[in-house]
Structures are given as structure tokens and as C-alpha cells.
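User: I'm putting together a teaching handout on how multi-component assemblies are represented. Below are the sequence lines for each component of a complex, exactly as they appear in our records. Could you produce the 3D structure of the whole assembly as C-alpha cells, so the students can see both representations side by side? Please keep the chain order the same as the input.
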Amino acid sequence: MQTHRLSSSGTFRFALLYALLFGLAALLLFGGLYWSTAALIERQVADTVAAELRALSDRYRSEGMSGLQLAIEQRSAAGADPESVYLLADAGLQPLAGNLRNWPEEAVPDGSWVQLQLYRRDQEGGPVLVGARAFHLPNGSRLLVGRDMEARRHFQTTLLRNLAITLGLTLVIGLAGGFLVSRRLLRRVDAVTETSRRIMDGDLTQRVPLDRSGDELDRLAESLNRMLERIEALMNGMRLVTDSLAHDLRSPLTRLKGRIELTLLGPDDPEAYRQALEQALAEIDIIQSTFNALLAIAEAESGASRTRLEALALDEMVTDVAELYSPVVEEAGLTLEVGTLEPVHVMGHRQLLAQALANLIDNAVKYAGDGGRVELALACTDGQAELTVRDHGPGIPEEARQRVLERFVRLDAARSLPGSGLGLSLVAAVARLHGSDLRLEAAEPGLRVCWTFPLAPS
Amino acid sequence: MRVLVVEDDEKTADYMVKGLSEAGHVVDRAGDGHEGLFLASEGAYDAIVLDRMLPKLDGLGVLQALRAAKVETPVLILSALAQVDDRVAGLRAGGDDYLTKPFAFSELMARLEVLVRRSNAPAVETRLTVGDLEMDLLARRVTRAGRGIDLQPREFRLLEYLMRHAGQTVTRTMLLEAVWDYHFDPQTNVIDVHISRLRQKIDKGFERPLLHTVRGAGYALRADA
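Assistant: Of course. Below is the structure of the complete assembly, with chains in the same order as your input.
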């Protein structure tokens, strides 16, 4: 954490706010404690004084002035409660008994509670703080009864000082705690910032580090990572499309260009021109169909079509496509056998699904060999719809099965047959779009394509 | 017929105007959305060929404005956007047909003629006739020269489409779209195989064939030679 960032740093501001709140809470708590303690002490003093007064007035009533004087002398003698303060004075304010030096001028004899600084007769030094009440007695003399509050004041001061120290410590702890907590949090935010900066610099493989705590920041990092994965997948898909375009369109374009150039170099013959143009058109048709297949794959892979998935009857679609393709299959000397089609609904993109199934049938026809059968079936098991397309051809060797789902992969045996090598990769892309599972299995003989879909919610 | 071509690419527009004129149609052209909308609003055309990506006002914008102004001229949308969803968007905006670039001129011509004919056709028909071939749409029965012809449901729809567009050229993609409602490139001769089966049923044993192959374009059902 550099200094120039300190004031603008979230950590600093967070820690400060944290410490302030912490301190404010401590201040309220300790302040309350202090004031209630002080009030309690004062009430205790007043209660004690009131009790003393009751006892003394009883004595006065029963034994008169001399009894009162005696009682006060006893109570203020050395060895008695040192905190009690008494003064009995005559009408001329001359002290008669008690442990105060003289009658204080501020003490109005009306029975109200007062706090006074008084000089005690039995103690040297300065005045002490006393809480007291003063009265007129019926014979004109005056009585003051009080409590020395010096010890209590001392206790209060100590309490206040200790509270202040504690408050200071609390603030320091709050500041440090806030700093540590926020630094931990913000360091993780910094990690996200750092990752996104590196991604902006072009490294799409970067991921936000996770701490597996499952808290909010971790969840944020996780969903950021998922988003990044999706973006990376899309970018890779895009790159694959451009690579594929270059790969598969370059050669037919080269052929086309060569053919046109050769024709122009040749004799000025309308028939030759016508022929060349027709061949060029045929070449363009091939380019166009490759292009269409690539775009369909890109459409399926971009996931943009996911929004257009709708509940559709898969069995009806299979019947439809089978009906469309069965004449082609028969033309090729094969038979298309549609087995049991259980009625199931899946969330699907009708056009892309039909095209994918058409590609599977087309593939089966191409590789099934002579006189074979192509079998279609649709079953509903374990809450899944399973579509199978099976041929009786040579099949695909196990090690190559995954590879044929990739773009432009054509096994050597297939090189002599027409086709772009995109048929199965479109199927694979459509399968991914539908969140479905596509497996190629050996059917001994032949290839079985098992395609399982989750059922549409009913 | 009078056709308005709204296309900003000069070469493509030249090519369409030339082709349509040679086929005997009157063609006007507009190079951007505003001009296209202005010309089309007069409503004097039998069909409009509308490119989707245009300067000033895009094709779908033109189309929506036209439909909002109750101009019901059939519109064929031309687009470089080939995805199924783009197509759906085009048709939802009020387009009557959608053709992806690059296209064959024969495909454009065939689709335009079907569009124009369709907008003039009577709404409800119960009986279609081409030469001695008759189709009863209510009883779902087909006869040729009084002899009953047994057709599968899909063959019936295929023949119905051909009969409704008798005398016109229909392309393979038009058939795949209209009869099967699929918009993908089947990459095989599926349609040809279906046509040849239908041909077996309706033409075999008759002296004059009705179902003709139009070279380089598609098929046409017609009674004359």
C-alpha cells in the first residue's frame, strides 16, 4: 500500500470509519457507566445522611439538646465512622459539637441537599468535599449532618481516568482491526482489479483467485470466473470459425480463381466460357454450403439461440425428418427403419435439431455401406429422451470417435467421399446448445449415435 | 410487374435491375432506406426487394414504417444475416419472404413471382386444376384424367404447393421451406428425390408430363408443353 494512495485508499477510509464507530460506541457505553456510577454514589451518600438524621432527630426528641450533643460527640469521636460529618452550632453559629471547624456560610439551614467544601476539625490540610443537609432546631441552634465524599470523588476520578484509557485503547484496537479487516477485503478486490487488467491486456486465461470461503466476495469472484470462461469459450469459438473459414474456403476459392484465369488465357470460345462458368457456379455452391454449415455451427455455439429453445415434440420432429430423408436413403440402396418413437418433449431449436438429425442420417447413409439399414429410435428413460441413430457400416475406431466431432476432421477412409467434414461437428455444437449428451458407440457392426436430452419441464 | 429494388450495393442492385428488366419487369431502384421508404409509400409496386442493411434507415425500419402506413405491398427481404433467428425477426417485422445473400437470380425471380401471384390469388379455394390434374382440397383427393392418384400426406402438400403455383418456377429451397418448414441447407438432393417420386405418381403413364424440371432453377408444374 503506497503512501500516496493512503487518503484515497478504501482501506484507510474504511479503517477510519470503523474506528470512529467503534470509539463512539465505547464512548456512549463508558459515559453511561460513569454517570450512573456517579449518580449511584451520590444517592448512597444522601440515603446514609437521611438515616443519620432520623437517628439524631429521634435522640433530640427523646433526650433534648444535651442528648443530641452527646450523641454527636460520640459519633464524631476518633474511631467512629470517619466519613460522617457533624456540626451542632448555637444560634450565634458557635460550634457546640461535631467534627467540623466552623459553621459554613453557604449551608442554609432549610434541609436541602448541598455539596460543600468544608474544613474538618480532626484533619489537617485543605477543605474536603462534603454532601450535607442543615437544619434549624426549635431552640434556635443549627444542626448539619453530612458525609465526606472525598474518597468517593477519588474513586470517580480513578474510574474516569481508567475509562479514558480504555476508550483510547478501544480506538486503537478499532483502528487496527478496521485496517486489518478492510485490507483483507480490499486486497481481494485489488486481486479482481489486477486480474481484469491482465485480461484487458489480452490474456484471457486469467482467473480471479478464489479463497473457497464461500462468502460474498468469493461468490462474486466465482461468477466472474464463470463469465470469463464463457467469454473465453466464445472467443475460441470465434477464432475457430475464422480459422475454419480460412481452412476450408481457401482451397475452393483457389480452384475457382485458377479455373477462371485458365479460361481467360485459353481460346476465345463461347462454349469453353459457358463450361467454365458452369463449373465456377458449381464451385461457388460448394463454398456457399460450407459457409452455411460453418455459420450454423457458429450459431449453435454462440449460445445466442438458447433464448429460442422451445418445448417441442421430439418424436414428431424425428418422424418429420425421417420422412424427408427416407427417399434419399432408399435412393442410396439402403433402408431407413424408424423404430419405436416414444412421445417426448424436449426444449429444442427446431431448425438446428432437424439439421443435426439430417446430418446424422446423411452420415449414416454415406458410411453405411451397401444394402445396410439405418435405424432410428427414440426412447424415454430415467427422465431423459434418448435418440439413437444406428448404421451397419464399418463404424468409427474408438480412438477416432471423439475426434470426428471436431471441425473438418475426416477420417482417411472418408476422403474420397464428398463432404466438408462439418456434419458431425454441427451435430456436436447443436448437442452442446441443448445441454444434451452425444455419444458415439460401436454397434458391432456399425456405429450407434446416442443422443440424450433432458426432458422439457411439463 | 413493377418492382422496387432497395439495395445500397451498386453492383448487386445493377445485377438485380438488369435481370428483372430482361425478364420484362419495370424496375425502380433506391440506394438507401429513406429513398426506399419514400418510393414504396406510393404503393404503386407489385413487389419490393428490400435489403436489410441500408444507410440512413435500415431495412426492418423501412418495413415497419411501410406496414404501419398500411402499405401491404409484398416485401422480399434480402440479407447477409443467415441465422434462423434473423430470419424470424425479418418475417415478424412484416416481410413476406426472406432470401439470404448470396443468392441465385433464378431463386429471387421465382420467389418474387410467387409473392406477387399470392397477393392476387383468391383467398379460399377448394379445388385446384392444372390441365387434367385435379385436386379436391376438402376431400383431399387427387385425380388425373379422372383416375384417382394415391398420395402420402406430405406428397399431397408438395403437389398442392406446386398446383397453387402452377406455371411458376419454384426452387428446391422454396419447397423445403413451404412444404417441410425447414430453412437449412440440406446438402443433398432430398427435394429432387421427393419430386421424382411425385412425378412417378402423377406423370407416369401419361403422354404429356405436367411436372417439369427448370434447369438451373427448380421445378414447374404446367399443362402446356
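A couple of points students might notice: Chain B touches chain A through 20 residues (CB under 8 Å). Chain B has two domains: 2-120, 127-221.
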